[in-house]
Q: What sequence folds into this?
């Protein structure tokens, strides 16, 4: 351990920009590789234009120590040595950097762009007799987001799956530069519409820590309530969609309705089913009065019972188990190497949960158990969701029972951000770890805003999980990860 | 003969109703109201009024296949006795022509799918071919077992010869045959657990992925032929399930129609309570069908 090579910080904290150690390329790579070897993870690796070329930043984290660390390095010229061969979890980060800045990642195993669609790209090919290629998307049969999947198959067996995204690239990160302004929150809430609360909360924490604003205990509790409602709604929807993919109608039909009911519970507080505007920098956009609390408690009681019934059917049907068990397996070693997060990582037995590892807000006081399962299959990913639904519902009941007094509403004007600082905020969204990193310039405006949606970590995991699987199991496997296209494409 | 023609016309008119019955059953289990009863007819009418779009990679094969498939299904229907009454055409050994015509229907569908040159449709064609290679022996053996049991060599002879007495004398044989035919029925018609007719996921489809490129009247022909097939294979099961032979004409017809409805409802119930099986397990399930029918043959021979 050489602490002087890194600047340590907590989750939701800011440091002066000048404190970030800038290392030489080789030392930068060694530092990251050494830490990853000691069970640290790479939360974010991104670049920003500097006077002499590109400056790379790496945000590392150790759940065991509840510690984050940051380190930087300058790239001069038009190439940098890739770290991916030593640290596979930075695979997509380095492709993103290469694509954004037109750099050549030397030694990278597959330096194709992950988002740009205009340029020439080549696809991975498997040669040989009987090997055939199946291309699906970007336009799909269902009403889902666009993404392109290329399978190299031997009969029904998948040898390799290549995932190409970027069709939803909107340039959110570059639009945020110069902020925060009145659009910033709305932009962040649409990073991934189904994770409105997760990204909104991460943004609010960034602004609060950079501006030195305090949040009341009541606002903390209501934020956790919003976050957990979002988790329950999406997990219930996912369980229903998994049932639908294997043609199991009872759960598919009821979970669709139940997801809507949970979303409506969110809407009953803030007027938006996806929780837009509920969380604002400095507090919440909407408070709960005692009547609303009573209504919520009552409707959640009915909901819990109905969800129990619908999901119970799913896990007790032998025909469903036959489909879920052993499909799309990922081992904990693979998950660790790929840097998976969220339910996909917990389904392999890894204990990774921002609420537990890097607690912030009310999670510093209330401990939620980390829901894990060991098999890493579709079943495990479904079962972890189910465990989380139950624990989140129980937690929501607790929160509603001891809602602190006071006001939760945000002040209309947030304090100005500190100049020349860097802040990191992690939030456990329903898909997993959301990481936001912001840097301010000398006037206190954002000069960089990096967003890492959990999907960015997990898409490569889906590709690996499909190896040696039947191609007909892809939709099921895909749904068990249920990753965001727009959250990845930004 | 006029009654046989009436039964033929009845099959042509009522077969899309079976789909409606299955859909309604599923809707009932899902707590939905379901589509209107005549929805399958509306769909056929809509498709018939549309123009067809042909991909430039396809040849005449793709355009001929839907008509060939429909013709094969209708020809098979002329061999099918209904409500204890003989069919329009009947001769000793027609059960082989019957299964041959069903094979022709499938052959046309597979050729058309391959003709599109799409990797997805090719995948569907290969799945269909694999499943039918296993389903067809089970069907022929089952028909052979009925022929052996009743001592008749024509469909029109052997199906009406099944009576309540046959159940009394040889219920294990009939029960085994019923299970075999049920498996063949579900596999051939692309129902759960073999295939999911409502899925939108191309990679999991068997039957549906083979018709992705078809449109307009061609698609109407394919859908209609599929409805006829539902009727044809359903009638085989209904003949065993609800033997009508001693009854007079009118009650016999009603009982036979009730048998058909029962098969359609049972399909809907199956789809409402179980998930679709994993694709690579399906050969084992269909293999089981062949084994069951072999046991039935052994029991008859004993």
A:
């Amino acid at each position: 351990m050489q602490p002087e090579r890194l600047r340590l910080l907590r989750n939701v904290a800011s440091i002066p920009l000048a404190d970030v150690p800038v290392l030489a390329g080789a030392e930068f790579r060694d530092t990251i590789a050494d830490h990853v070897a000691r069970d640290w993870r790479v939360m974010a690796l991104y670049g920003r234009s500097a006077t002499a070329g590109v400056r790379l930043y790496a945000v590392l984290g150790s759940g065991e120590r509840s510690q984050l660390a940051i380190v930087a390095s300058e790239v001069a010229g038009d190439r940098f040595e890739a770290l991916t061969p030593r640290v596979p979890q930075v695979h997509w980060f380095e492709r993103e950097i290469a694509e954004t800045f037109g750099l050549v990642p030397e030694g990278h195993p597959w330096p194709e762009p992950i988002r740009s669609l205009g340029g020439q790209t080549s696809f991975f090919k498997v040669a040989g007799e009987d090997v055939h290629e199946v291309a699906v998307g970007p336009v799909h049969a269902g009403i889902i987001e666009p993404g392109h999947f290329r399978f190299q198959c031997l009969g029904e067996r998948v040898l390799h799956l290549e995932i190409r995204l970027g069709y939803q690239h909107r340039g959110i990160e570059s639009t945020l530069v110069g902020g925060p302004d009145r659009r910033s929150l709305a932009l962040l809430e649409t990073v991934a519409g189904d994770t409105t609360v997760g990204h909104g909360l991460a943004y609010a924490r960034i602004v609060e820590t950079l501006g030195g604003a305090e949040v009341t205990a009541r606002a903390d509790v209501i934020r956790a309530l919003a976050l957990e409602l979002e988790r329950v709604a999406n997990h219930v929807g996912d369980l229903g969609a998994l049932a639908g993919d294997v043609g199991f109608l009872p759960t598919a039909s009821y979970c669709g309705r139940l997801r809507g009911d949970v979303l409506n519970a969110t809407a009953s507080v803030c007027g938006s089913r996806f929780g837009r505007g509920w969380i604002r920098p400095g507090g919440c956009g909407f408070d709960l009065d005692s009547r609303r609390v009573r209504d919520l408690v009552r409707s959640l009681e009915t909901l819990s019972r109905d969800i129990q019934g619908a999901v119970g059917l799913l896990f007790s049907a032998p025909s469903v188990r036959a489909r879920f068990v052993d499909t799309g397996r990922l081992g904990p070693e693979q998950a660790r190497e790929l840097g998976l997060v969220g339910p996909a990582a917990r389904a392999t037995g890894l204990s990774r949960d921002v609420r537990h590892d890097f607690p912030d807000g009310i999670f510093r006081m209330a401990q939620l158990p980390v829901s894990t399962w060991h098999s890493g299959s579709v079943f495990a990913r479904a079962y972890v969701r189910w465990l989380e639904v139950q624990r989140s519902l129980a937690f929501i009941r607790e929160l509603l029972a001891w809602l602190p007094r006071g006001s939760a509403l945000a002040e209309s004007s947030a304090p100005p951000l500190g100049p020349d600082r860097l802040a990191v905020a992690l939030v456990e969204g329903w898909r997993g770890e959301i990481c936001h990193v912001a840097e301010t310039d000398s006037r206190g405006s954002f000069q960089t805003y990096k967003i890492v949606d959990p999907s960015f970590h997990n898409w490569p995991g889906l590709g690996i999980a499909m190896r040696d699987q039947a191609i007909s199991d892809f939709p099921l496997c895909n749904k068990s990860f249920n990753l965001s296209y727009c959250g990845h494409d930004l | 003969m006029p009654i046989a023609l009436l039964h033929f016309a009845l099959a042509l008119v009522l077969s899309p109703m079976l789909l409606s019955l299955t859909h309604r059953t599923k809707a009932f289990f899902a707590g939905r109201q379901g589509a209107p009863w005549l929805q399958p007819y509306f769909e056929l009418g809509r498709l018939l009024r549309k123009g067809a779009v042909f991909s430039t990679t396809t040849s005449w094969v793709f355009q001929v296949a839907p008509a060939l498939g429909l013709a094969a299904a209708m020809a098979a229907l002329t061999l099918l006795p209904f409500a204890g009454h003989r069919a329009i055409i009947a001769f000793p050994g027609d059960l082989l022509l019957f299964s041959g015509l069903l094979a022709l229907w499938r052959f046309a569908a597979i050729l058309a799918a391959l003709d599109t040159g799409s990797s997805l449709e090719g995948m569907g064609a290969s799945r269909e071919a694999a499943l039918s290679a296993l389903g067809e022996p089970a069907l022929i053996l089952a028909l052979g077992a009925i022929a052996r049991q009743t001592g008749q060599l024509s469909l029109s002879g052997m199906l009406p010869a099944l009576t309540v007495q046959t159940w009394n004398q040889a219920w294990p044989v009939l029960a085994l045959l019923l299970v075999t035919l049920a498996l063949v029925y579900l596999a051939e018609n692309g129902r759960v657990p073999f295939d999911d007719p409502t899925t939108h996921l191309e990679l999991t489809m068997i039957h549906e992925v083979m018709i992705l490129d078809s449109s307009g009247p061609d698609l109407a022909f394919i859908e209609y032929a599929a409805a006829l097939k539902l009727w044809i294979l359903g009638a085989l099961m209904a003949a065993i399930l609800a033997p009508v032979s001693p009854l007079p004409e009118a009650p016999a017809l009603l009982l036979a129609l009730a048998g058909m409805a029962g098969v359609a409802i049972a399909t809907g119930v199956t789809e409402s309570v179980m998930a679709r099986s994993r694709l690579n397990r399906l050969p084992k399930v269909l293999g089981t069908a062949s084994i069951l029918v072999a046991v039935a043959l052994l029991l008859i021979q004993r």
About this structure: Chain A has a mean pLDDT of 89. The domain at 3-106 of chain A is CATH 3.30.460.80 (Beta Polymerase; domain 2). Chain A has two domains: 3-106, 175-451. The CA atoms of residues 175 and 364 of chain A lie 33 Å apart.
